[in-house]
Design the sequence.
């Protein structure tokens, strides 16, 4: 029952982020914002998403809910970094960030996720999956 409640809460949270995006402009974020207007979840929505993820006891459940959030919401690279830090293991951070790349509002900034990982090899694995053959900064 708790699992269903958390998933429903996460869905509503992410849907509200989506509705807000279509109702007005969001904040500019990240180095790439000069090229076009990037609209991200509000800090309150991000904080709520992170709190929901922290409430879950296991990374596999966190991964399920985090994927749902990024599918329905609008998150920037720095938002995804904050969400990824909730995971206990790099393996799950890698899976999450690979999945989230397709939904990220500023994927060109994925290079800045290096410090999210405990091991550089996991960062390289993630980057190879989302930007094969790209040079690393």
Sequence:
């Amino acid at each position: 029952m708790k699992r269903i409640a958390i998933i429903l809460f996460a869905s509503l949270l992410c849907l509200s982020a989506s509705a807000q995006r279509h109702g007005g402009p969001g904040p500019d974020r990240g180095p790439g914002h000069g090229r076009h207007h990037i609209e991200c979840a509000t800090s309150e929505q991000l904080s709520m998403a992170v709190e929901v993820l922290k409430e879950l006891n296991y990374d596999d459940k966190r991964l399920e809910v985090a994927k749902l959030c990024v599918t329905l919401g609008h998150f920037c690279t720095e938002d995804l970094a904050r969400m990824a830090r909730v995971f206990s293991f790099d393996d799950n951070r890698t899976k999450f960030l690979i999945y989230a790349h397709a939904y990220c509002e500023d994927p060109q900034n994925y290079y800045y996720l290096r410090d999210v990982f405990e091991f550089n090899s996991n960062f390289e694995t993630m980057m190879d999956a989302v930007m094969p053959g790209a040079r690393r900064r």
